[in-house]
Amino acid sequence: MGLQEIRQRIAAAERAAGRPEGSVELIAVSKVQPDARVETVLEQGHRVFGENYVQEAQGKWPGWRQRYGGVRLHMIGPLQSNKAKAAAGLFDAIHTLDRMSLARKLANALAAHDGNTPELFVQVNTGDEPQKAGILPDELPGFLDQIHELGLTPQGLMCIPPEAEEARPHFVMLRELAEAAGLDRLSMGMSADFEAAIAEGATHIRVGSAIFGARDYSDRG
Question: Is the torsion defined by CA of 14, 20, 22, 24 positive or negative?
Answer without folding.
Answer: negative
